Amino acid sequence: MGAHENLEHAEHAEHAAHSNKKIALLISVLALFLAFSETLGKSAQTAAIADNIKASDTWNFFQAKTIRQTSLRTAAQALTVEAATVPDEAKKALLFKQVDEWMKTVGRYESDPAEKDGRKELRALAEKYEHDRDAQMARYHHYEFASAAYQIGIVLASAAIITSAIALVYAAIGLGAVGLVFMALGYFS
Predict the structure, then answer these.
(1) What is the pTM of this model?
(2) DSSP for residue 118
(3) How far is CA 89 from the centre of its chain?
(4) Which of 27, 64, 149, 159 has the maximum number of C-beta atoms within 10 A of its C-beta?
(5) Which of 148, 135, 141, 137 is nearest to 179 (CA)?
(6) What CA–CA distance (Å, rounded) separates 150 from 138?
(7) How many C-beta neighbours within 10 Å does residue 179 have?
(8) Cβ(117)–Cβ(65) below 8 Å
(9) Distance between CA 175 and CA 181 in Å, rounded?
């Protein structure tokens, strides 16, 4: 090899090393955003699971109120029929008073704004938890798409170092941008 060829070879190696440093920096940035995306995604997933548990617990409480309400209403109806057959007016009045008390409780089981634990309030709360869960799951899916874009971008950038194919670098940058869009959708949704 002549001196000229050695110099040309060294210049080419220096240019490739400089290019590889830029690609390595791109990989580092993509990996950083991948870490953010994974962390935010896990947080959204955990919040969705917590909201799902809250919704389930609230629906269980709603069902328990419904069962109590139905049992009490049935007992009040049976006592009303029984009271109609009692000849003693004082005893009949006491039975009807008990029926009235039970029916007030039945009404309170339906809606109790003071305690916020009537069926109406429980239904609204359970539906709110379901809505929150669905919103968190949507955020989680956006973060998962972002993570996939970053991972594929890292693979393409790594392949660009080996193959020196500049198109792979541009594809990696494009996937990084797609990942940012999905992260923004997850964060702001």
Answers:
(1) 0.80
(2) S
(3) 60
(4) 149
(5) 148
(6) 19
(7) 25
(8) yes
(9) 10
- The tokens describing 20, both together, are 């590889």
- List the structure tokens of 46: 């955990």
Splitting the chain (189 residues) into consecutive groups of 10 residues, what average pLDDT does each group show? 56 61 96 98 98 98 97 96 94 96 97 95 98 98 98 97 94 98 95
d(CA 128, CA 55): 8
Inter-residue contact 169 to 157 (CB < 8 Å):
yes
d(CA 85, CA 96): 12
The predicted pLDDT at position 12 comes to: 53
Structure tokens at 144: 């998962």
Give the residue from 66, 62, 100, 70 showing the smallest Cα distance to 83: 100
The position carrying tokens 């049992």 is 71
For residue 179, what are its two tokens?
């990942």
- Segments in 85-115 forming alpha helices (H): 89-110
In this prediction, residue 6 carries a pLDDT of: 55
- 11/88 Cα distance (integer angstroms): 115
Q: How far apart (Å, rounded) are the C-alpha atoms in residues 120 and 116?
A: 9
Give the CA distances from residue 14 to residues 7, 9, 170, in Å, rounded to whole numbers and listed in that order. 10, 9, 21
Inter-residue contact 179 to 37 (CB < 8 Å):
yes
Residue 102 one-letter amino acid: W
Element (H, E) at 143: helix 119-163
